[in-house]
Design goal:
It holds the Pfam family FAD_binding_3. The protein is α+β, with helices and mostly antiparallel strands. It has 13 helices and 20 strands.
């Protein structure tokens, strides 16, 4: 770890929090990580799709080969309607390989967090603490302290909130802003910044019947859409059901809601041989959750800054949520590395400037990504006749698919990369990655 006095407290030990730990470790910046669950790496949660923008980061920090060993490459997406009729294939993942030189991959949350955790040195593991739920955060002119419900507290220079859509760090940030006499209304985030239009039942089950590792399938129709990604041992489906009315209230669901969901949609096809009911009956894990959407207006306050789902929440339809959280970390740690390399004890104005620059670099891309994910979900659930027409007659065109991927390619290729690490393992495709100038590490470890 670093000899600098600059210390980061990461709240949240999921994929984005562990990405922050790895980026800070490579930058030579001290950190401590706090996770509310009993262990840092747990076998829970749905699978994740890691897109080229996320894979680039893994390649930069030397984890691509390790990651590939625990994940499956994705190819064509086969699509069906609610009656099992073929809607044609979508080749978005195929075009990723052609354009960027690497295929998107599906991985379990457990496997990804294990890879990220194992990549850290023993000295970093000693600074990672489970069973640490945030109670309050306090700040002084020179520090920030996270107070946990078990009575412990941790003091550092800044706090990174990587604790998800229902972020306690974001709530504390708002509370501090409300308490400050100099706060203007536009500096205070909404108490409930995200809108829920859909809810999702996700099911993990053994890969079986006609499924093969790397398969991607979707079922589209009025009111409900399904995405399936098959791994070596288990497959995961995410079912997206449109609510009768959107809400900003936090929704909670129990076993009765889950059973009713299955009763309503259990007959829908997942493949030629499998239905939702088949997957549910053989489930390893399952959960019914809200799908919040939106972008928080202010990503920082004084010594607190947000990344990932704490700052923005996408529907999972495009697989972009976790990937954008990883890229948030890249953009933020680049700014922190500049600050720490130039000042041993940076002033609050300097830190605020770094936070502002980070949000400015990411905000437009995140808003666009959030809107794109929302439109994808609306299209797959046939929100109205226009979305249904687009799904059946526009997206189904291979020419349109190729055009859309090539239109997006320059922005993907220009995704921020760590500025203090060489690009390393990342292969090249038709559209070269925009290289960042490699800067000195923040401090000497």
């Amino acid at each position: 770890m670093s000899t600098s006095n600059f210390k980061v407290i990461i709240v949240g030990g999921g994929p984005v929090g562990l990405t922050a730990a790895n980026a800070l470790s490579h930058a030579g910046i001290n950190f401590v990580l706090l996770e509310s669950r009993p262990n840092i790496v747990i076998d829970a949660g749905s699978n994740l799709v890691i897109l080229p923008m996320g894979l680039r980061l893994l390649g930069q920090i030397g984890l691509l080969d390790t990651f590939n060993a625990v994940s499956s490459a994705l190819g064509q997406i086969q699509r069906f309607d609610h009656n099992g009729r073929d809607l044609g294939e979508v080749n978005f993942f195929v075009h990723h390989k052609e354009i960027h030189g690497i295929a998107s991959r599906v991985v379990s949350r457990h496997a990804l967090t294990q890879v990220l955790y194992d990549a850290l040195p023993a000295s970093a593991h000693a600074e990672m603490h489970a069973n640490k739920k945030v109670r309050t955060i306090t700040t002084t002119p020179s520090s920030a302290t996270v107070h946990c419900t078990d009575g412990t507290s941790y003091t550092g220079t800044i706090v990174i909130g990587a604790d998800g859509a229902h972020s306690l760090v974001r709530a504390q940030m708002r509370a501090l802003a409300l308490q400050s006499p100099s706060t203007s209304l536009d500096q205070i985030n909404e108490d409930h910044p995200f809108l829920t239009t859909y809810r999702s039942l996700w099911i993990r089950f053994p890969t079986q019947a006609d499924l093969q590792p790397g398969d991607a399938k979707e079922t589209h129709g009025v009111g409900c859409a399904i995405q399936l990604f098959a791994g070596e041992e288990t497959s995961v489906i995410g079912m997206y059901e449109r609510l009768d009315e959107p809400t900003k209230d936090r929704l909670r669901f129990g076993p009765a809601d889950e059973e009713a969901f299955i009763k309503r949609w259990g007959n829908l096809p997942l493949s030629r041989q499998l239905t939702v009911q088949d997957a549910y009956d053989s489930r390893v894990q399952a959960g019914l959750v809200s799908l919040e959407e939106g972008v928080v207006r202010n990503w920082s306050w004084e010594r607190i800054v947000l990344v990932g789902d704490a700052a923005h929440k996408f529907t999972p339809s495009t697989g972009a949520g976790c990937n954008n959280g990883m890229v948030d970390v890249v953009a933020l740690v680049n700014e922190l590395s500049r600050v720490v390399s130039s000042q041993e004890a940076p002033e609050m104005d300097t830190i605020a400037g770094a936070f502002k620059a980070y949000q400015e670099k990411r905000f437009a891309a995140v808003v666009s990504g959030c809107e794109g994910a929302s439109k994808a979900t609306a299209t797959a659930t046939w929100k109205n006749k226009v979305f249904k027409f687009v799904d059946l007659h526009v997206i189904s065109s291979h020419r349109v698919q190729k055009y859309l991927m090539h239109q997006a390619a320059p922005k993907v290729a220009a995704t921020p990369a760590l500025e203090f690490v060489e690009d390393g393992q990342m292969p090249e495709g038709k559209v070269p990655w925009v290289q960042s100038a490699v800067l000195p590490r923040a401090v000497k470890a």
